[in-house]
What we know:
Elements: H1 15-26, E1 34-36, E2 43-45, H2 57-65, H3 78-89
Helix pairs in contact: 1-2
Amino acid sequence: xxxxxxxxxxxxxxxxxxxxxxxxxxxxxxxxxxxxxxxxxxxxxxxxxxxxxxxxxxxxxxxxxxxxxxxxxxxxxxxxxxxxxxxxxx
Length: 90
Ligand SMILES: [Zn+2]
């Protein structure tokens, strides 16, 4: 629990998520490569993230801290888009 002192470790948050948040707050310029689902608020890197940005380190870190998170035109991740479609079909 070495991230507690930074205040980013909230209840129910995994250490990986806390790492990711800490990373984004430290390097806000990489936020443009982050997708966030408008429904479940899950965050991940955009599928368009190139193999190397900012001397290769940022891209590597984003891949370490986040999963790839494609979102559709409504800003929904695949899981939420699926739920959304099912709701619309019902
Ligand atoms: Zn979602």
